[in-house]
Design a protein that fits this description.
The chain has 11 helices and 9 strands.
């Protein structure tokens, strides 16, 4: 159902959606298991990044149809609880204290797009296909919409795809802002490795602070304007400059050597 792997080292956790016969579609047990795994990951002080991918070269085909059939036969209260579990998963994924990377291969439909959008960084293979398939089932992408719109910056470019449920390709997904880059299948792993090495070479506390900073600086319409962040951002950079990582980073730069980042606290 869900595998935890560490192929890139003990500080990079890979969460593998492992329902290949269902194209790694989401059902209640998988949503709960993934949520539990992310809550546990957030408590690991030495973790540098989390990678989310699907088993056997398929990311996620959305909601499991058998599970949806059972939900359709349930009352509204049961359906509300099920939807709230997915919402909690997405919020936990979005608020994970370390960078999260989605690796979209073959398909990312429906709820799979929600997982992708809730991650900080999304890479895809050139052949991956994407779709907001909900309207073709008489539904809407309600729970995933806030994360998708935040990833894309605006709702309007998404309208043709959400209103029709049409399938689009990786270049279109990148234009929309759903993914950051796409690569040939044979080069995707190398691109992921390069990204993870970049995360690993950066100061670990600084990366966590940078993620929290990006989450707090919401300058979209209705959000705070840049000047309203001045006191918080000034205090943050002052604290980091005086901290051990900031001191080591500056000294390493001036001495033209690789930084030796201080150990994480136990």
């Amino acid at each position: 159902m869900l595998r935890l792997e560490y192929p890139y080292g003990p500080d990079i956790q890979v969460l593998v959606l492992d329902r290949p016969r269902a194209r790694n579609a989401l059902d209640g047990p998988l949503v709960r298991r993934l949520h539990e795994a992310l809550l546990a990951a957030a408590r690991v002080p030495t973790l540098r990044a989390v990678v989310l991918r699907g088993a056997e070269g398929v990311f996620c085909a959305g909601a499991d149809l058998g599970w949806m059939r059972r939900m359709a036969e349930s009352d509204q209260e049961t359906n509300q609880k099920d939807a709230e579990e997915l919402a909690a998963l997405l919020e936990t994924l979005a608020s994970c204290p370390v960078p999260t990377v989605a690796l979209a291969e073959t398909v990312a439909y429906g709820g799979g797009l929600g997982l992708l959008a809730a991650c900080d960084i999304a890479l895809a293979d050139d052949g991956c296909r994407f779709a907001f398939s909900e309207v073709r089932l008489g539904l809407v992408p309600a729970v995933i919409a806030p994360y998708v719109i935040r990833a894309c910056g605006h709702a309007r470019p998404l309208a043709p795809w959400i209103y029709t449920g049409g399938v689009f390709d990786a270049p279109q997904a990148q234009r929309l802002g759903l993914i950051h880059a796409h690569h040939p299948q044979g080069e995707l792993e190398a691109a992921l490795n390069t990204l993870l090495e970049g995360c690993r070479s950066a100061a670990p506390r600084a990366v966590r602070a940078a993620k929290a900073l990006l989450a707090s600086c919401d300058t979209r319409p209705g959000g705070r304007v840049p000047g309203e962040h001045a006191h918080e951002t000034s205090a943050l950079i002052a604290r980091l400059r005086a901290a051990s990582e900031g001191q080591e980073g500056l000294n390493a730069f001036l001495e033209k050597r690789p930084p030796r980042w201080p150990e994480f606290p136990s």
